[in-house]
Amino acid sequence: MNWTVLLPVLIKVMIVNARLKKLFQFLCLLCILIPGLACSQDVYKLRSYHNSQKTRVVLDTETKPDYSTALSKDKSVMAVRIRNIDNLSKAPQGGKFKAQSCLSSVAKKTDGKDVRYIFSLKSCDTPKTFLLAPSKDSKNYRLVIDFPHASESAVKSSAGTAAASSVKSSESKKTAAVSAKSYGVDTSKPLAALERDLFIQYSTVGKDGFRTMTPANAGTYNQKLKELRENYKKAQLEQDAAVASSRNSSAGKKTSTTIKEEVEEEVADTSAPPVPVNATPVARPFIIAVDAGHGGKDPGAIGKRGVREKNVTLAIAKALASYINSNKSFRGTLIRSSDIFIDLDRRSEIARKRKADLLISIHADSVASGSSTARGASVLVLSENRAERENGKILKNHKQTQLIGGAGEVMDQSVGNPYLATAILDMSSTNTRSEGNLLAKEILRSLGSFTHLRKSQPISASLAVLKSPDIPSLLIETGYLSNRYEEIQLNQPNYQKQIAYHIYLGIKSYYEKYPAQKIKSRQESYARTKQIGGKRSVTVKRGESLSIIANRYGTTVSEIKKLNSLKKDTLSVGQVLYLP
Description:
By secondary structure, this protein is an alpha+beta fold. The protein folds into four domains: 43-148, Immunoglobulin-like (Sandwich); 191-241; 286-526, 3-Layer(aba) Sandwich (Aminopeptidase), CATH 3.40.630; 535-578, Membrane-bound Lytic Murein Transglycosylase D, Chain A (Roll), CATH 3.10.350. The chain is built from 16 helices and 19 strands. It is elongated. The termini are far apart.
């Protein structure tokens, strides 16, 4: 902050409160003795990239830059001034741009503690400048200048204008001096020095040796100070543009360094999807648990640009929950809503406690080798082998009471009859995986309409978060952070919202297309398992086989196997079979 900015405020405060007079006098003296008091900064990097629409130049600075821009009247030159720089000699140098860019070169010029970057334009429309504040992925401020590529007709017109302007380049320095004087300021002096002179002009030295102002002078001084700053800036900008024009023809010849281009930034911005509007859910909504992968101490995959998977997944999960809650038939619940770590086993337990009908886990993929060629979204479902192992753990540890719906209750009532429990759990698990596959296909179809798919069909995998035998569960890999393009996309808020929106559309399509898989399916499952509990049963004795039992009770081997979920014909002595 420039201390001279405080003068008008301090003057008013001093007039109202005489007790602050001594402090004011001290600060005035400080401003006179040290006119350049302001926060200094460094310029770290000058980088660029181009595509068919524009050339973008980015200047990375340590703190929020005090900058101004000037564009010549013929739009052939643009100057960017950054004030109060510490690393003037180490600040990025100028150079040439690639032939495909609408810029030809940039030259660096220092002026006191200011640095100026003078861009020579070939075929650019009016540039646009904006400032990006530091983010979780970049600690620096970024001054961004977009140079739109002009159309062919505009290029021909600008070429003629540029030719005419080159004839006048020898007079540009005179023009600069005239324009500076026309505003009544001398830009050869620092602004702080001119402000000091103005302060001395409207203040008087008291008996104590300090300068003070009368209320009338203070009002005039404030107005004159405002005019001085405005005129100084205008004169400086015109001078920058004029000097830039004089350097236009020679800047490209004197600089041989090529400005570094960052091709990975050549990713088009994604348009925003419809904004979700929260809706009041029905009495018994379809509950969808949304799990943002990783979190807390577990960052997940980290891209080359520093994008962390845990941040991407949380942003997409929050957006998905918002879209889910915009549908009155649904209710979304987040497994984690902040940057915390939750054990994998607990994630499905949380979904079960919240009586979720679906569990969607959001992730971003990565290739261990660091290859950037792998790309695309995919959807993973639980493999059959993993499902069988998890079912065995549930029976072994007597955790059937934790399951949702009829399966858990009937299994709990079948203590001492492990074969019945196995059959019911297997039925529940098979039905759950079947529902999960149907849902996965609908989500893939929806995602495929927006982004590239790694696989167009669900992928079977052995993953802990998908192990619930009673809740259809999916893991969605939204893209590859190891891919330089997708890393940028996955870090864009609009892209994250689009991914969430298309996942939601897939869920909605599943819900509407397969009514049997809605909430009623749990009630139907409960009824089916209750019926099994009421069937007649037989205990297998030594020497008995499925065919013998089927003949004895007037049924078939296939019907007995189907009812008891048997995969083999082999029986064990003492095994209980339920008969059709």
